[in-house]
Amino acid sequence: MRRILVMMFLIAFSLAMFSNDLNDDIKKAESLYKKGKYKEAAENYKAILNKGYASPEILYNTGNAYYKMKEYPSAILFYEKAKKLALNDEDIDNNLTIAMLQTKDKFETIPEIFIVTWLKNFSNLLSYDNWAKLFITLLVSFFILLAIYLLAKTNALKKVFFSVSILALTFSIISILLAIYQFNQIKNNHFAIVFQPSVTVKSSPEINSTDLFLLHDGTKVQILDKIENWYKVRISNGSLGWIEEEAIEKI
Questions:
Q1: Does domain 15-100 have CATH number 3.40.50.1240?
Q2: Gap between the Cα atoms of 108 and 236, Å rounded
Q3: E-strand spans in 33-126?
Q4: Quick one: which of 26, 85, 137, 238 has the fewest CB in 10 Å?
């Protein structure tokens, strides 16, 4: 028992020390940013991220520091990373849009079917882990309501609690389906940002293959496949091709 208490104390002490160090690091980075020392601020924010603390705020602030330095590919990369953790954050969306306006490539986006767009927007109302939490809450509510229904004395109460329990069950199923859908969207859709000033997209994963089109730094691509040091990518207008690994940074 004594050993357990000592271990618990050491763990709590370590967590407290980590929290204090983290707060000091964040304050230092924020101070550097306010002083206009954007390069140092970005380096400090990245040091925090390298310690394993990746929050939307830290990623967003890192993007802001790079934007101030006019390093737009890096700014876009960190805004996109922040967006993955905070799907409906207006500040992130606005700054990402502004940063993308600074890029050279302007491709038309293939229009999606209405139901696909609606499903994406609806699923993005919550993160997949929050959809999962809602599923658990609703499922527990269903069992509680079902128990009350079984114990109810009158038919009127039975009808009410049965109806509400069915609604809870229905919404719990919808919630877990949305959680799975969103998780698969994140897991199976891999994107990257072009970092080289210009790069030629090839018809196959070979340096001597046919040149298809040029991409410039800051452009977002979807990764579809990989062969050795080549990635098969798709851009927003649907065009496909192969690009060398060194030309991009994964989101």
A1: no
A2: 7
A3: none
A4: 238
- Using the CB atoms, write b or e for 156-167: b if 16+ within 10 Å: eeeeebbebbee
Tokens of 90: 């207006």
Pick the CATH number of 190-250 from 3.10.450.50, 3.60.20.10, 3.20.20.80, 2.30.30.40: 2.30.30.40
Cα Rg of the chain, angstroms:
24
pLDDT of residue 87: 81
Burial of 69 (0-12, 13-18, 19+ CB in 10 A): middle
Beta-bridged to residue 249, according to DSSP, are 193
At 203 the three-state DSSP class reads coil
Cα gap 205→70, rounded to integer Å: 32
∠ at Cα 67 (62, 72), nearest 5°?
Answer: 110
Taking only the tens place, the pLDDT of each residue in 152-204 is 889 999 999 999 999 999 999 999 999 999 898 888 889 999 999 999 999 99
pLDDT, position 58? 96
pTM of the model: 0.76
Mean pLDDT to the nearest integer, 132-157: 94
Q: What amino acid is encoded at 41 in this protein? A: A
20-25 LR contacts (CB < 8 Å, sep 24+) = 22/48, 22/51, 22/53, 25/51
% residues pLDDT > 90 (the chain):
73
Q: How far apart are CA 240 and CA 222, in angstroms?
A: 9
